[in-house]
Amino acid sequence: MTKSTKLWWADNPRFFTVLFIGWMVVITFLSLVSGISVETERLVDLPIDKLVHLTFYAVAVTLGAMAWKEKHEPFTITSRFLILLAFLASLYGTVIEVFQYCFTADRTAEWEDVLANSVGAIFGAFFTLWSKDKIWTLKTRSK
Prior knowledge:
Elements: H1 15-32, E1 42-43, E2 46-47, H2 48-71, H3 79-103, H4 111-141
Antiparallel strand pairs: 1-2
């Protein structure tokens, strides 16, 4: 007889929701608090700062989609929904850049950051489209 492996987060009906909200708080905090910066060394002719932006928003879209599905089950994550989510994440990233320009002393707004945020959101949408069933099946199967 085999013992089924139960994931600790599978029983939590709001796991992705809490994770998504926490992730957005981290993005906001790191973007707006003065004195926090990422080294701008280059990795494959791309500043690491831009890779951080890309990663933040890719993860945000994936977590946002999973949180929405969690709250509105049964819900099918569609490409149309992911386009909307990527747009909203890009818009949020743009607003954060405007806030950096207007409300912080040592932070500056950069159009390259807006571009990296948007590209990250699009990557997150593609990743979610590819992995959504794998992630969701992993959660529901282990209950």
